[in-house]
Design brief:
The complex is a heterodimer of chains A (329) and B (233).
Chain A (H helix, E strand, L loop, with lengths): L1 E6 L5 E3 L19 H10 L8 E4 L5 E4 L3 E9 L2 E3 L2 E2 L6 E3 L4 E4 L4 E9 L3 E2 L28 E4 L6 H4 L4 E3 L16 E5 L8 H9 L2 E3 L7 E5 L14 E2 L4 E4 L5 E4 L6 E2 L3 E5 L4 H5 L6 E2 L1 E3 L2 H22 L2 H7 L1
Parallel strand pairs in A: 14-23
Antiparallel strand pairs in A: 1-4, 1-12, 2-3, 3-10, 4-9, 5-8, 5-10, 6-7, 6-9, 8-13, 11-12, 14-21, 15-16, 15-22, 16-19, 17-20, 18-19, 18-21
Helix pairs in contact in A: 1-5
Chain B lengths: L8 E4 L4 E5 L6 H17 L4 E6 L3 E6 L1 H7 L5 H14 L11 E6 L6 H8 L3 H10 L2 E6 L6 E4 L14 E4 L3 E5 L2 E4 L4 E3 L2 E5 L20 E6 L2 H6 L1
Classes of the chains: A alpha+beta (329), B alpha+beta (233).
């Protein structure tokens, strides 16, 4: 009753919503880079939205299902395949035991989420199953998935009758993930406390220029390369809290956007903050892609977050009994 | 706050947090205010406050936007939270008591940067050790890494600036100096502090219920140990 990693990918880890409440001890929350997509995958399966899933980067791991399972994959499109046959994103897929899930090609996005119906049996630390690779803790809490690792399912399942001899059975419904159709293509930000340290010309560059995500980007942060931005003040800041989405100005005039594995505090000027509702969109951007920033207000930020949340609740209601009914028939 | 001279500014840290900023400086009395407010909020566990993070001279409050919006439909979560925080700031919150105990931390002073500090500050290595271990330090905040305590104030005579080029790997337990701060790396990490020694103590242990040895507001004293004592710990 498990999922076996037959080939390790570049960085596949177990993630949930993150480890909150311990930043005062320097313990960062971590968690999924794209919580929205992780929640979509779980909701499709009738799981708790914040059940831990596997966050997959490309090149991805190959997974062997040692038992029947129902899965959903959301987020980036890496062309998932079961035994060489393509399977769709954003849909529950029933999978026969001894099948292999592979990801063939980096088509769109930066990371996808593999959720399993009823969840994975995982160790938890400080109320979260999210892997933190820097704390030296045993097992899936402290490492990325390696060859021959096995993750057990919470419940054993047998879908022989519904699979009827086939490797997969794809359910006829699909999650609509486009909740944000009215926003323009920019990343929306709120002003940071030190925005006014920027020289006027640098401020103009910040809102009008494109910033390329550099190859030095990872789960901790996206380093950007763009026009040099300059501060009018040489005064150093004493360290204070920073969060997911904080855009900091580095001493060399370039920007960094802090992502899921950010440190709890920092001392670089905070130029802006990516609104929470756009974390998902940002997390699906990858190196070489270009970002344009657009200032918004807190009212819009809250409304967009609520809209995203309501979209998930609607999906939840739509999925609630569907899978159960499908399995019965 | 109990001190009427306390001035502060509340600014949003994105759409889900506020920082209460008492000024851009390192000062014991300011940090005490931060910690007493932190302790108060940790104890009160106010609705929809997700977590509270103290720093040198500021306190950041993360809140649940959706939780607030659910309870007060149509209202702005940030406005309600700001009002809540401003009411708390007007309260007479008792000041933090001084830490009753001092955590003593053994250090083998054999760090790679002792020589640099000795040259930079024109002082002998023995004097550096003597000065570093003579002071009681306050833990102002934790950050950077799980269990990393920012402590101060380091005596001006040994206050060496950060390295120009950070090391790619500083070992766990390394004791360092950065300006007037001193700290201990709880785990191996890249880092730019001047390394003066190492402690055999574990500053961070994920298997423990209290995973960090130190917390903000603690007092710390270092004492010198020999190589044999280090090995036998």
């Amino acid at each position: 009753m498990s999922l076996k990693i037959v080939k390790a990918g570049i960085l596949d880890t177990v993630q949930d919503k993150g480890r909150y409440g311990y930043q005062h001890l320097g313990i960062n929350p971590g968690g999924a880079m794209d919580v929205f997509s992780m929640q979509v995958a779980n909701i499709l399966l009738g799981n708790d939205a914040n059940e831990a899933a596997i966050e997959i980067h490309f090149p991805a791991s190959a997974f062997l299902f040692e038992q029947d399972a129902i899965i959903a994959i959301s987020g980036a499109d890496f062309l998932p395949m079961i035994n060489g046959e393509a399977i769709p994103l954003h849909r529950p897929v029933i999978i026969n035991k001894n099948s292999v899930l592979q990801f063939r090609e980096l088509k769109k996005g930066a990371r996808c989420y593999l959720a399993v119906k009823d969840g994975l049996q995982l160790p938890s630390w400080l109320n979260s199953c999210s892997a933190n690779l820097k704390i030296g803790i045993e097992g899936f809490l402290g490492k990325s998935l390696q060859q021959n690792d096995r993750i057990h399912f919470k419940t054993p399942n047998d879908y022989t009758s519904i699979l009827n001899g086939k490797d997969t059975r794809i359910t006829p419904w699909k999650a609509d993930v486009n909740w944000d159709i009215f926003s323009v293509d920019s990343i929306y930000v709120l002003p940071g406390n030190e925005l006014n340290r920027l020289e006027e010309e640098s401020k103009r560059h910040f809102i009008s220029d494109l910033f390329k995500i550099s190859s030095l980007s990872d789960r901790m942060g996206y380093r950007l390369s763009g026009p040099g931005l300059w501060s009018t003040s040489e005064d150093e800041l004493v360290s204070s809290a920073v969060s997911f989405g904080t855009v900091q100005l580095l001493p060399d005039g370039q920007l960094i956007i802090l992502m899921a594995d950010h440190q709890t505090s920092g001392g670089y000027p905070k130029i802006a903050h990516v609104i929470t509702a756009h974390h998902s969109r940002l997390a699906q951007m990858r190196p070489e892609e270009k970002i344009s920033f657009r200032f918004t207000d807190i009212k819009t930020a809250e409304e967009l977050l609520l809209k995203q949340h309501q979209h998930l609740r609607q999906l939840e209601n739509a999925c609630k009994f569907r899978l159960q009914d499908f399995l019965k028939n | 706050m109990n001190d009427t001279t306390a001035t502060y500014r509340v600014f949003p840290l994105g759409d889900s947090a506020f920082t209460i900023d008492f000024g851009n400086f390192i000062d014991i009395s300011v940090n005490k205010k931060v910690i007493s407010l932190f302790n108060y909020l940790q104890k009160e566990k106010l609705e929809n406050i997700l977590e509270v993070v103290p720093a040198y001279s500021s306190l950041t409050i993360y809140y649940d936007v959706l939780g607030i919006k659910k309870k007060y439909p149509g209202q702005r979560a940030c406005e309600l939270m700001k009002k809540t925080l401003e009411e708390i700031l007007l309260k007479n919150i008792p000041g933090e008591n001084d830490a009753s105990t001092v955590t003593r931390i053994p250090v083998l002073y054999d760090g790679e940067d002792l020589l640099f500090i000795s040259q930079e500050k024109n002082i002998t290595v023995d004097e550096i050790i003597q000065i570093h271990s003579a002071t009681n330090y306050r833990v102002y905040m934790l950050g950077f890494l799980p269990g990393f305590a920012y402590m101060g104030e380091v005596d001006e005579r040994i206050a060496a600036p950060r390295k120009q080029q950070p090391r790619l790997k500083v070992e766990a337990g390394s004791v360092g100096i950065a300006g007037k701060q001193t700290g201990i790396y709880p785990s191996a990490s890249p880092g730019g502090w001047q390394i003066i020694g190492r402690t055999p103590l574990k500053l961070f242990d994920a298997t423990k219920e209290n995973p960090t040895l130190l917390k903000a507001g603690d007092m710390v004293q270092f004492y010198s140990i020999t190589k044999d004592e280090f090995k036998n710990r």
